[in-house]
Amino acid sequence: MAVMRALVSVYDKSGIVGFCKGLSALGIEIISTGGTAKELKKAKVKVTEVSDVTGFPEILEGRVKTLHPKIHGGILFKRGEKTHEAQVKKLGISPIDIVVVNLYPFEKTSASGAKLAQIIEDIDIGGPTLIRAAAKNFQHVAVVVDPKDYGCVLGLLQKNGLDGKMRYALMQKAFERTANYDWAISRYFSAGEKTNEFPEKFTMSFEEAYPLRYGENPHQKAVAYRRIGRVSLFDAKVHSGKQMSYNNFLDADSALGLILEFKEDEPTTVIIKHNNPCGGATAHALCESYKLAHASDPESAFGSIIAFNRRVDVKTAQEIGNKFVEVVLAPGFEREALEILKQKPSRRILDVTTLFELANKRKANYRNITGGMLYQQVDDIVYDLEEAKIVTKKKPTSAQELDMYFAMKFAKHTKSNAIVFAKNSQVIGVGAGQMSRIDSCHIAIEKAKRAKFDIKGSCCASDAFFPFRDTLDALANAGISALAQPGGSVRDFEVIKAADEHGIAMIFTGVRHFKH
């Protein structure tokens, strides 16, 4: 029986000595390079240097070591193919049966702020080439790129050897690794000088990040993936509670997007239910903002997601008390406040401090459609207070301008068609996601009345223009005093006329906020 040979060349040397000792004990010859060879020799593992195989020294400060026909020929030739067998025999090329490689840490180096020269040096050339060669010939060669697989591979070799199923699985992981590595390099250099905001072709790479029991519904399987190299909601520190679900993450992401609209010096609470805001308020203290936000719609707040824009204190935690809340997220928690919130063991508590530090860094978002993806610049504005145009005879007061702007922040994060009422920086009614704007209007009015709010004197925001005056009439009859909307309808003149008839102040923002 021919002696098996393993080529070992790793940057991450964790577990490599034990693995190679196990290979040697099975009579497998170890071929190695540079630092890996030194590490193995130090551990008394018998090693053949690559240069002894190729008859050629390592050159260019180690940039060229394994790029040689005696290495790649030994990996790539088809076992049992007469022509291949004759060629390698004639050229004195011996087979390499196992390739154990992991790569220079380009991702880590490029993320560390290192100088360009160091980043370039950490672009691995020989490693990906070895991995791809071995993966291409997986029917005859085993390729190991993950130290976590050492134990399993060694165990199989000690028993009946590596079967086709295992080599296939190792091949899949190998090509995933090289694809992600090349993508990381491309992403790094593409981020330097933007030649095209929307490139003709691009790749995004993800890794499994969080276990999910199921998707939106129990009959749907699901997995949560993190985009490689990005800080995500999956990186939030989970202090307690049940495992986060698919829907929890969707709602938490909506809550995060909305709460980031508010500055830290504006103590604010937002409450999300089924991806829409159902409550929110800004007040002089966080506890007070929570009380007002919960009062916006106490019914919908049951089983909701609560987000805060500052560290949660004891008073706020006590106010939440035993209420049924699925998720609480904030940029930190006072120790005692955390203990109070943990008293409901199923309540998920997320510290999203890191995400607050990266607030508004996201420049694009995307959604899957059948066979493709829609990719767009993020909606990163509310509207310009200076550019908003007063279109009615009655001018809004400064207090009304603030409430309209506050309401529009919520309308921006509410599914279209969206109508939001606000009074004194408190949401008092929301109409979301209806097929017609007048239906959303009626829902917002009904929500406000059910929560026992006096709509009279409140302000309203609409995510898009009014196609007819019927919505304006309904809002005026309910008692609103000022309205912010984008404008742009062919019937704007009718809506302006209606507002003047009702004595309502109205501004056109010029910014639409459809959210589908």
What layout of secondary structure does this protein have?
Layout (H helix, E strand, L loop, with lengths): L4 E6 L5 H10 L3 E4 L1 H9 L5 E2 H5 L14 H8 L5 H9 L7 E5 L3 H6 L4 H6 L4 H11 L5 E3 L5 H9 L5 H27 L15 E5 L13 E4 L9 E4 L5 H14 L8 E6 L2 E7 L3 H11 L7 E5 L5 H7 L4 E6 L4 H7 L6 E4 L1 H5 L6 E6 L2 E6 L11 E2 L7 H15 L6 E4 L4 E5 L5 H14 L8 E4 L7 H9 L3 E4 L6 H11 L2 E4 L8
Helix pairs in contact: 1-9, 8-10, 12-13, 13-14, 17-18, 18-19
Structure in a nutshell:
The protein is α/β, with parallel strands linked by helices and 516 residues long. It folds into 3 domains: 5-190, Rossmann fold (3-Layer(aba) Sandwich), CATH 3.40.50.1380; 231-357, AICAR transformylase, duplication domain (Cytidine Deaminase, domain 2), CATH 3.40.140.20; 389-508, Cytidine Deaminase, domain 2, CATH 3.40.140.
Describe this structure as you would to a colleague.
With 516 residues, the protein is of the alpha/beta class. It folds into three domains: 186 residues, Methylglyoxal synthase-like domain (Rossmann fold); 127 residues, Cytidine Deaminase, domain 2; 120 residues, Cytidine Deaminase, domain 2 (3-Layer(aba) Sandwich). The strands form five sheets. Strands 8-13-12-11-9-10 form a six-stranded mixed beta sheet, sandwiched between helices. The chain has a six-stranded mixed beta sheet with strand order 16-21-20-19-17-18. Helix 18 packs parallel to helix 19. The radius of gyration is 31 Å and the shape is elongated.
